[in-house]
Predict the 3D structure of the following.
Amino acid sequence: MFLLIFNQLLKMLIILILAFICYKMKVVSQEGNKSVSNLLLMVVNPCLIITVYQTDYDARLVKGLLIAFAAACMSHIIGIIIARFLIPAKNNPEYSLDRFGAVYSNCGFIGIPLIYSVLGNEGVFYLTAYMTVFNLFTWTHGLSLLENKFTLKQLKEGLLSPMIIATFIAVILFFIQFKIPATVLDSMNYIADMNTPLAMMVAGFSVAQADLKKIFTTFHLYWVSLLKLIAMPLMVAVFLFAAGISHDIAYTTLIAAACPTATTTTMMAIRYNRNYTYSSEIFALTTVLSMVTIPFVTFVAGFLIK
């Protein structure tokens, strides 16, 4: 598993570097970055989710999905506890963004292509549970961090995100065993195959916009990154081992938890008038460091998860 993940991350890193260069050379503008991001979020990811659910009904998969939901909930709770006690509010005006960044992973843009490459459709099938829980926690706990309040209207908005809607549709089609016509499904698979390159392009464009010199010389950002990329996933690995979670579900949950800070952090910082520049710095540093930390975490976890 370690070698598979390392090899895939190396490929993804090459795409990220190419995107970084393209942005610096002004081949792609900020408007282009936004368009690619929207295409990935609104079209490519939903197509991928729907296609992975186009499989024969299997009670084992259903049971696994329920276990994946429970594991995802526990993973987020572990992250919340770690952030609450290791990122104090005192003398830290950006503590809410630090905690948000330490808990919530880029399980969509980074998690989907990575898990798809090492675990295939079944891994993405289980990953939908993590992404659903991610959205639920983001628009409840996450929002309470940024706004110190929570409303059902805001939760409703989160539940109407493209990924949640696509997952809902995909689950219905799976349970009623409705098969999408082969020609249409093949077209959707072609679109879904764009997920990895587009996701890493978006990550590369985003990193290119950050002040890397400032980021790499700010000690506090390394502390947040350490919690997000090492402490949280390793604690999740211990939980998965103690709970006896099966291999594929365990690695799906672990990789999702080990992904860098979610792009949602910056999006929500902009929306709720927080320091979005600082949130983008957390995203950029954790994205770069994750190319090393994800293989490290999976290597360590390999001694626990069999």
Q: What stands out?
A: The chain is about 80% helix and 0% strand. The mean pLDDT is 88. The CA atoms of residues 135 and 253 lie 15 Å apart.
